[in-house]
Amino acid sequence: MKVLIVSLFALFMSVSSCKKNKSGDSQNPGDVAIKTKVLATGLSHVWEVVYGPDKQLWITERSGKISRVNPETGAVTALHTIAEVVSKGEGGLLGMTLNPDFEANPWVYVVYDYGSNYKGKVVRFTYSNGTLNSPLVILDQIPAASIHNGSRLLITADKKLLITTGDASEADNAQNMNSLSGKILRVNLDGSIPADNPVAGSRVWSLGHRNPQGLGLANGKLYESEHGPNNDDEVNIIKKGRNYGWPNVEGYCNKDAEKTFCTAHNVVEPIQAWTPTIATSGLTYYSGDLIPEWKNSLLLVSLKASKLTQLKLDADGDKVETSKDYLVNDYGRLRAICMSPDGKVYIGSSNGNDDKIIEIAK
C-alpha cells in the first residue's frame, strides 16, 4: 500500500508539472527556466514579428494583414491590408522591417507575392496617423511560387536593405547571377543598387540559397537560416559575394562532387546543419540581460520541429558551441522571432488556425 501511494503521488506531481509547463508558467527542456505568456490569439499564418520604436509589436499575416500588438495588453490593432496580395501555398504577405531611423523617416518595408503570373515585390510604406500610405515599389518581378519564396528583410547599420529570395522551385536559378532567385539581395533604401555591391550593377550580395527565411546581424556578421531539401537545413554566416552551394551542395562540402564544386566556386559551409530537417525559419541574436544564459546566442524558430533552439556562439561568433531546445511542440509551427530592448523575446506561430504571439521572459 505504501508503494502504491508513493507511485500515485509521483504520477500526480508529473502530471501537475506538465500542466504547469503548458500553462506558460515555465519552460525548461534546456537548462534555463523561462516564462511564456500568450499575448494574442486568433491570428492566421503569422509571418513576421518586429519590435517597433513605438514599443509595439508589428506583425504580418500571410493573407495580407499588417497589424500592431500591444505587448502590455495583447490588443491587436489593424494597420493596413494589402488588397493585391495573393496567398498561395507558402506565398503571400511575408517579411517586414522598419527603418531604424523611424522618427525621421517612418518607413515600413514589406515583401509579398501577387498577380496571376505570381511574382514577389518589395514595397515601402510610410506610417502616419495610425495607417500605412504612400506605397513605393523598391523591387518587383521577384520569381515566386507556392514554395521557396525566402522573403526575410533586414536593414543594416550602413542603411542598406537586405532581401532573401528562395529558388521559387527552380533550383538552378540559385546559381544564375541574372536571376533574383536563390539569393540575398542588397539595395539602398530607395531600391537603387549600392556602388559597393560585389558585382557592379547587380543587387546580388550572395548566391546559392534554397529558401532562406532567417536573418540576423551581430558580432559584425550576418547570420542566415535556410531550408534544405530532405536533409541539411542550415545556419550560415553570409559573406560578401560568396556562394552557398545550392543546388550543387547540400549542407557541408562532404561528398566528392560537392568538394569539387566548393573548391571551384569558393563555397562557404554552414556553421550548423540539421539532418533530419527541422524547417529552420526566423532568427535573431540575443544580446539582452533578462536571460543572461542566452547572451551571445542565435535564437532560431522552426516549423516542422515546432521549437525554439538556442545556438550558443563562441567568443568570435564564428562557431556554434552548444545547442538547446525550448517550447518543443508547445505552440506548433513557429515562423517569426524578435527581441525587445529589455530582453524579452517574442515569437509568432504559423499553423493557419488560431495562431499566436507569445512572449518569453524569465
Automatic annotation (TrEMBL):
The keyword Transmembrane helix is assigned to this record: no
InterPro entries per the UniProt record, alphabetical: 6-blade_b-propeller_TolB-like, Glc/Sorbosone_DH, Quinoprot_gluc/sorb_DH_b-prop
Assigned keywords, A-Z: Oxidoreductase, Signal
Protein name per UniProt: PQQ-dependent sugar dehydrogenase
GO MF, one annotated term: oxidoreductase activity
Annotated EC: 1.1.5.-
Signal peptide: 1-19
PROSITE patterns: PROKAR_LIPOPROTEIN (PS51257)
